[in-house]
Amino acid sequence: MQHKRFATMACPIARGLDRVGEWWSILILRDAFAGLTRFDAFQKSLGIAPTMLTRRLTALVEAGLLEKHRYADKPPRDEYRLTERGQDFRPVLIAMMAWGNQHFAEDGVRVQIVEAATGIPAEPVMVDRRTGRSLLEPDYVVVRGKPAAAHSGTQEQSA
Amino acid sequence: MQHKRFATMACPIARGLDRVGEWWSILILRDAFAGLTRFDAFQKSLGIAPTMLTRRLTALVEAGLLEKHRYADKPPRDEYRLTERGQDFRPVLIAMMAWGNQHFAEDGVRVQIVEAATGIPAEPVMVDRRTGRSLLEPDYVVVRGKPAAAHSGTQEQSA
Fold this sequence. Notes:
2 copies of one chain form a homodimer.
Chain A: H1 2-7, H2 12-20, H3 24-33, H4 39-46, H5 50-62, E1 66-73, E2 76-82, H6 84-87, H7 90-104, E3 111-115, E4 124-128, E5 140-144, E6 156-157
Antiparallel strand pairs in A: 1-2, 5-6
Helix pairs in contact in A: 2-7
């Protein structure tokens, strides 16, 4: 049910999610980055059941990605804002968006990240801040092990 | 149940997932990037029920992220390999890993991406391939709209 809804959304993140899992929480974060803060706004954007939205928002607050702020007392109303931890999730969303646009934008790219000054679409690529090079194999490898072992020759390669 | 298991894993991706949702599929992809191809290997790595693993593998094949290859006939045995679409998911995993290490590695970084030649840990950052600059606001903004409208002044900002 959720899957069908996701698949028909224009958003490349939603389309990507459709292929990988059910992630309302990610879409809540996406909307939070778009500036949404209030329950009603999230519900309107996502079209999910209030009970489900409440559950996901509560989980995101408990996980430290969103913070609750009371903006009205009678009746009590809260809004939800991204914490620093939530803000730091942005690269994951951008990577998801790029992947969704790359593989699931059969009808054209509908949401994308552009250079603000020129409107030219960005081509997101993940690099090493120190070297500026792409994090591709074989130049970059994922290693498992405690921090102290990071420079030793006994690393076990992993994902 | 799944959540508790995720939270106690050393993997920063799993820890991140624990905060955001339930994503066995992502962890299957992570293991596929680590070189796992066979059902038994995935099951051993993930410790999930065979029925669940079968379901997730089938979904990833149907979504075009994994391909099934028969490697034995008696009895019939298949292995699962990343497709190009699956390979292209790597930046999402790296972004998840970086975020997990940044926020949930209380006991030290246990899995990370390093420069192969030097062993120096990479600092993953998402940039625009054309300009080399970080995709941060306000320099880069997410816009909604059809491709033809990408350069117009009528874009609706979104995340």
